[in-house]
Amino acid sequence: MNSTIWMALALVLVLEGLGPMLYPRMWRRMIAALTQLPDNTLRRFGGGLVVAGVVVYYMLSRAAG
Fold first, then answer.
1. Which class for 47: exposed (0-12), middle (13-18), buried (19 or more C-beta within 10 A)?
2. What Pfam families does this protein's entry cite (predicted)?
3. Which pTM was predicted?
């Protein structure tokens, strides 16, 4: 289980790095646009990502047995 968490973290880092590596200008514009959003919108977006991650983790852990 411990190595699975590290592998998941490594995959997150790879996926997070693809945007700035492949599309730096678009990534910079997206970040600039995010800074203009109200705090509540960012909180909801972040909360949605957390919930989606927990659901995916739960589904994968149940499928793995």
1. exposed
2. DUF2065
3. 0.72
